[in-house]
Design goal:
Layout: E1 6-15, E2 18-28, E3 32-37, H1 44-52, E4 59-64, E5 67-68, H2 74-80, E6 82-85, H3 97-109, H4 118-135, H5 151-163, E7 169-173, H6 181-194, E8 199-203, H7 207-213, E9 216-221, E10 224-229, H8 231-236, H9 238-243
Parallel strand pairs: 3-8, 3-9, 6-7, 7-8
Antiparallel strand pairs: 1-2, 1-4, 4-5, 9-10
Helix pairs in contact: 3-4, 3-5, 4-5, 5-6
Organism: Belnapia rosea
Pfam families: ABC_tran (PF00005), BCA_ABC_TP_C (PF12399)
Keywords: ATP-binding, Nucleotide-binding, Transport
Length: about 250
């Protein structure tokens, strides 16, 4: 079997007396969408922070693309291809949609465009930014100020900014949060398109979306992974159903 793109083993994180990540182990195969679900307060966001490198685990290891990254900070992990989509705050409202994506391309490329003549460098930068916008269906909005986009379009731009980093694994923390029904439909369509080209680790509350998108699902409850399996098996798992008692989402 091919080596997983992400392998998490024995990960632990405590906040005071609370084990928020309690011996978490799971791996993500290359290609498709692996979702992490769990009731409120299960520790999903804390897990994402440890995977992206903004929070240091107390114990355990995170291997990405065959490398130990546990002690690395976010910038180094991002350069290796472990990118996280940030919330809307990373969208610069006073810049155009294209400029927002171009800044992300530039951040990834470092000084490589400097070796081109300025006009050629700018053209190459804009082409790559435009390609990222097209992948999320925002090409027609390229010239608009990012600040006037709708909520759903800002989420699309956030995705384009992450894609501009050319990630090998894209971490998405609640990409549908705050989206209305139509925006949700559109975003699900975009994510279905992206999963053909990218490997995505998705944390999401919207169960309909998770079951429409995911190839595999890990269920986190009180900081522990209680199951990792294909969606149909997760849906039928009595322990998973019990964890969601009172929340009718999985049922
Ligand atoms: N910095 C912190 N200090 C202390 N406790 C924290 C801290 N961050 C999170 N927690 C606690 O850890 C637990 C897990 O929080 P986390 O936000 O990771 O869960 P979650 O699964 O993402 O929740 P939700 O689904 O509501 O977003 C919660 O009980 C939370 O109060």
């Amino acid at each position: 079997m091919a080596e997983p793109i992400l392998a998490v083993a024995g990960l632990r994180k405590r906040f005071g007396g609370l084990a928020v990540t309690d011996d978490v182990s799971f791996s993500v195969a290359e290609g498709g969408i692996h979702a992490v679900i769990g009731p409120n307060g299960a520790g999903k966001t804390t897990l994402i922070h440890q995977l992206s490198g903004t929070l240091r685990p107390d114990a355990g290891s995170i291997r990405f693309a065959g490398r130990e990254v546990t002690g690395m900070g976010l910038p180094r992990r991002a350069r290796l291809g472990l990118a996280r989509s940030f919330q809307i705050t990373s969208v610069l409202p006073g810049f155009s949609v294209l400029e927002n994506a171009a800044l992300a391309v530039q951040a990834r490329s470092g000084s490589s465009f400097r070796f081109m003549r300025p006009a050629a460098g700018e053209r190459a930068l804009n082409e790559q930014a435009m390609a990222a916008l097209d992948q999320v269906g925002l090409g027609a909005r390229a010239g608009m100020m990012a600040g006037v986009l709708s909520h759903g379009e800002k989420r699309q731009l956030e995705l384009a900014i992450a894609l501009a980093m050319r990630p090998r694994l894209l971490l998405l923390d609640e990409p549908l949060a705050g989206a209305g029904p139509e925006e949700t439909e559109r975003l699900i369509g975009i994510l279905l398109g992206l999963k053909r080209a990218y490997t995505i680790l998705l944390v999401e509350h919207d169960m309909q979306a998770v079951f429409a998108l995911a190839d595999r699902i890990s269920v986190l409850v009180y900081g522990r992974i209680i199951a990792t399996d294909a969606p149909a098996a997760i849906r039928a798992d009595p322990a998973v159903r019990a964890a969601y008692l009172g929340e009718d989402e999985v049922a």
